[in-house]
UniProtKB/TrEMBL annotation:
InterPro entries in UniProt: AMP-bd_C_sf, AMP-dep_synth/lig_dom, ANL_N_sf
Name of the protein in its database record: AMP-binding protein
Family: Belongs to the ATP-dependent AMP-binding enzyme family.
Pfam families, per the entry: AMP-binding
Residues of the AMP-dependent synthetase/ligase domain: 49-215
Length: 357
């Protein structure tokens, strides 16, 4: 059985397999075309990478890879066939595409909505067994009273696309259901590891069944996973490997800043300065990066979204010098009116750096 509901119209998987989409809005036609191909047994599908560290690319993945990913997720959370799901993500990207595959593989009842910052706000029946969101959607929903209440009607909520801030992680702990941060990429056909956001201490990612984890000489994560076609994937993520199926994420080697011979992982330092950012630049997005420097090779700098604020920039630099080791203190604060984003709504650091002033 199973079905996809769009608005007030419910389409059974049998109807979708037959191409019977009467009354379907044009914006969902591509979605249903993919579902039709899946239900008819198509063997390969073309997916687009997010472009978080470079130009987006197209890759081909097999039906079996996507099935293995969907079934591993169902086993991890002990979800049942016929469960109720919500897809509120961009279905052109792997996260949204895999919500469709999971629904079809689990014979689920899937509600499909246009992605918005408040996806729960206007739903008739807001109870779901499984929902995936990006941090922006979780943040907006936590801040709106009605949506905050509706979040408690979700049994399992996974958050992907970008790391959560410490503040948002603390807010997520108050939710009634299970809440997990995901780790994965298009090449692994969505997530291969999940971290319980309600657990205390560092965020520990645990691999899905069948996934084996290792590190290379630079502590970059190496993944062997059936959903990756049993290939060995060399990532650019630096981790503390706890076991062959668990790790703590530190940052991406792509963004490593070599300042005077000292290698700095910006994402790790970003987590340390979050209290200062909340004090001096509340509600603003930011990141640390390296800028060319004649003396150091690269100098660590802070990039903040929004209007220039020289006064608070000075206060921040002064306080950060007290908090951080001398090699990790940003040398300057840059302001960018609007950050560049990838199609999957991650901050595009490389593009944003081009607009520094």
């Amino acid at each position: 059985m199973g079905s996809i509901k769009v608005g007030q119209q419910n389409y059974s998987f049998e109807a979708i397999r037959g191409g019977d989409w009467k009354g379907l809005d044009s914006e969902f036609e591509k979605v249903f075309a993919f579902c039709r191909d899946w239900l008819r047994g198509e063997g390969e599908f073309v997916l687009r990478t997010s472009g978080s560290t470079g130009r987006p690319q197209e890759i081909t993945v097999s039906r079996e890879q996507m099935r293995l990913s969907a079934n591993a997720t169902r086993g991890f959370f002990n979800l049942q066939h016929g469960c109720r799901m919500l897809c509120c993500l961009n279905t052109e990207m792997i996260a949204g595409r895999m919500m469709l595959v999971r629904a079809m593989e689990w014979e689920a009842e899937l509600l499909l909505v246009t992605p918005t910052s408040l996806p729960l706000e206007n739903l008739d029946n807001p109870y779901f067994d499984f929902v995936a969101m990006v941090p922006m959607q979780l943040q907006a929903s936590m801040d709106k009273q009605k949506s905050r209440h509706l979040l408690d009607n979700i049994r399992v909520l996974i958050i992907g696309g970008a790391p959560l801030s410490d503040v948002l992680r603390e807010k997520a702990k108050s939710l009634k259901g299970e809440v997990y941060q995901t780790y994965g990429m298009t090449e692994t056909v969505s997530h291969v590891a999940l971290a319980n956001l309600k657990a205390e201490g560092p965020l520990v990612y645990r691999a899905l069944p069948g996934v084996n984890l290792e590190v290379d000489g630079e502590n970059r994560l190496v993944i062997q996973a059936p959903m990756a076609g049993n290939r060995t994937l060399q990532t650019q993520d630096v981790v503390d490997l706890l076991s062959h199926n668990s790790f703590v994420w530190k940052g991406r080697v792509d963004f490593v800043v070599n300042s005077g011979g000292i290698k700095i992982h910006p994402e790790e330092t970003e987590s340390v300065i979050r209290p200062l950012m909340h004090e001096y630049f509340p509600e603003r997005r930011y990141f640390l990066t390296g800028m060319q420097d004649e003396l150091l090779g690269e100098a660590l700098v802070l990039v903040v979204e929004g209007e220039e604020d020289i006064t608070n920039a000075g206060h921040f630099l002064e306080k950060s010098a007290e908090m951080l080791g001398r090699f990790h203190v940003p040398k300057q604060v840059f302001f960018v009116r609007k950050f560049s984003m990838t199609p999957s709504q991650k901050i595009n650091r490389l593009e944003t750096k081009k607009n520094l002033r």
